[in-house]
Each structure stands twice: as structure tokens, then as C-alpha cells.
Specification:
Structural class: alpha+beta
Oligomer: single chain
Number of helices: 3
Number of strands: 10
Length: 216
């Protein structure tokens, strides 16, 4: 098992040639395969923007626009909040218009604001989201995360899990099917990193191992 770490992601703005170290949520990799890994994420607080739309692309842009206003000072403390990674879009099937998906676009709050997040201005329709310690299956993919490829990547993760001790262990407790984590600025063209996240039912106290099943 890898040592728990506070992940620092380097976000490079390809056009401007600038790089900034960004805070990310803490996790431990408890199992790793060539095409997926199981992570144990620690308690954390995020700011969440609900969006109802047909398109993942459009929903992510709309939600992040509100979150960006928030971190630029549109909160009751007028606090400016540093950018973090990833930007997380969680998909809720069938909850949006025309029975399409609804989404939650989420921003991880820096350690400085974890205990007491600045309250957003009411018109932004944002809410703090408390994330308990839990286990997540993760698949990485490159390029831009778009409507045409996120379902395919999620299906690939599902196939990988079906061949592992975590088969049939995906969790419905979160209320969403899966999430897409994006780590890069839209200006970054080459070397982009995205991930599909799926919550799994496993014991956090036992390193995300399933009850009665030894992880291989």
C-alpha cells in the first residue's frame, strides 16, 4: 500500500507557458492494475454546483463558471480562493430535462478553507459538499473529456471491474452513476489527464478490501 499523500498537481497553461502547483484531495492507492486502480479518499469538503442539462460539456462549463465566480470572491467573505484540481463532474442519469442526465460540478476546497468554507452568494446556487472517507475505482484517459467519449471510458472501467474482486461492488449510495475528474486547464492541448471515478462498496477501515474477498 502506498503512503497516503496530499497530491500536488501541476497545471500547465500551454499558451501562456505558466505552471502552478495545485492542491488536490488526499488519497491512498490500495490496489493498482494496468487499466484501473482503487483509491481510498479521505474526508474532504467541496463546493458543488448543480446543473440540469443534456450535455456533459455544457453542464461542466456552466457549473464551473459559477464556481469560478465563487473562488474569485463571489462569497460572503469576499475571499479569493486558489484553484485546485481536479474539477469533478458527477453524472446523475435521468434527472435532467427530457430524462437526460443532471450533473453536479464540484470544486475541491484548499486545506485553508476545508473546516469553514466561505459561503457563496445565494444567486450562484452553490452548496458545500461534505465528502466522507470512501473507496473509488479510477480509470485514467487522455485528451479532452467530451460527451462522445466519457460514456465509453466509464464502460471500460466497468468491464475492468467486472473482471476483478470488485465486480458488482459499485455503490448507489452517492446518487450518481460516475464522475469525470479533469486536471488541466482548457488551454492545455498535449498531455491532458482525465479520470473516470466510480464509488465502490468496500471497507474503508480495511483498505477498501471487500468483505470475505482478498484483493489480488
Amino acid at each position: 500500500m502506498e503512503k497516503a499523500r496530499s497530491v500536488v498537481v501541476v497545471l500547465c497553461f500551454g499558451i501562456l507557458g505558466l505552471c502552478n502547483a495545485l492542491e488536490s484531495p488526499q488519497y491512498t492507492v490500495v490496489h493498482s492494475e494496468s487499466d484501473f486502480e482503487i483509491r481510498l479518499y479521505r474526508d474532504s469538503t467541496w463546493m458543488s454546483a448543480p446543473v440540469k442539462d443534456i450535455s456533459f460539456d455544457k453542464a461542466t462549463k456552466l457549473g464551473f463558471h459559477r464556481l469560478f465566480q465563487y473562488i474569485q470572491g463571489a462569497n460572503l467573505n469576499f475571499s479569493r480562493i486558489a484553484m485546485t484540481a481536479p474539477v469533478l463532474t458527477s453524472i446523475v442519469p435521468g434527472a435532467g430535462p427530457l430524462h437526460s442526465s443532471a450533473y453536479f460540478v464540484r470544486f475541491y476546497l484548499p486545506v485553508k478553507f476545508q473546516a469553514s468554507p466561505p459561503l457563496p452568494l445565494p444567486e450562484l446556487n452553490l452548496k458545500p459538499y461534505a465528502w466522507d472517507t470512501h473507496c473509488i475505482a479510477v480509470r485514467k484517459f487522455s485528451g479532452f473529456a467530451r460527451d462522445y467519449n466519457i460514456v465509453e471510458e466509464a464502460e471500460k472501467l466497468g468491464i475492468s471491474l467486472s473482471r476483478s474482486p470488485w465486480a458488482n461492488s459499485t455503490s448507489s449510495a452517492s446518487g450518481y452513476a460516475y464522475s469525470i475528474a479533469q486536471y488541466n486547464s482548457p488551454f492545455r492541448i498535449i498531455g491532458r489527464v482525465n479520470e473516470v471515478w466510480v464509488d465502490i462498496n468496500a471497507s474503508e477501515l480495511d483498505g477498501c478490501k471487500l468483505s470475505g474477498v482478498a484483493a489480488y
